[in-house]
Amino acid sequence: MPVESSRIPRVPSSAPAAARGLRADARNNRNRILDAARETFAALGLDVPMSEIARRSGVGAATLYRRFPTKEALVTEVFADQLSACVSVVDEALADPDPWHGFCSVIEKVCAMHAVDRGFTAAFLSAFPDAVAFEEERVRAERGFAVLTRRAKDAGRLRSDFAQADLTLVLMANGGIATGSTEAALAASRRLVAYLLQAFRADHADPAEPLPPAPPLGLHHVHRPPTA
């Protein structure tokens, strides 16, 4: 459903308040769990078992499940800040007077975030019905992007057959980048996004922007497994 307002009310997270109410030792355990989960999800994605998170954080499984009873609870807590940053990117683009520039900036910035964090890609594309605040923020980002899409089409800059599902395709393609280094992942993401944005343009009569430099990748990178 189109959303006419360029600003959609943000749902505040209660997580920081909950953390402040913990004892010092419990708060330290919680932070260790979150740090270990953040690093592991970024490198390996969301399929890492909870037992591995407990091992890497140095806490027992009982402590982990006491703080985070389900993986969904852990995932949504880990990626709350990244999701808020993603929503902020959409808000900034909605305030841009150039609809095409705003549309492009969202895809470029979000894909850059996703290229260096495999877990966030999966979390953003997943549904978490029990995590109300997380879901509200994700839906807010989707609706804001729908507004950007409509504006770019109305301005004659975005091809008319671009669909909201195409954003999912972009993120799926970008999330598959596995290069072994942050620098190469970002370079690969920039070039991929540049190709895609050229394909999305409706005004091909204008000279195209030059592509970013090619990343240092070979065919052997296609099947490179993720590393922690």
UniProtKB/TrEMBL annotation:
Residues 27-86 form the HTH tetR-type domain. Transmembrane segments: none annotated. PANTHER family: HTH-TYPE TRANSCRIPTIONAL REGULATOR BETI, HTH-TYPE TRANSCRIPTIONAL REGULATOR RUTR. The keyword Magnesium does not apply. Residues 49-68 bind DNA. This is TetR family transcriptional regulator. It comes from the Bacteria. It comes from Streptomyces scopuliridis RB72. GO terms for molecular function: DNA-binding transcription factor activity; transcription cis-regulatory region binding. Residues 1-22, 207-228 are annotated as: Disordered. InterPro entries: Homeodomain-like_sf (IPR009057), HTH-type_TetR-like_transc_reg (IPR050109), HTH_TetR (IPR001647), Tet_transcr_reg_TetR-rel_C_sf (IPR036271). Keywords: DNA-binding, Transcription, Transcription regulation. Residues 1-21 have a biased composition (Low complexity).
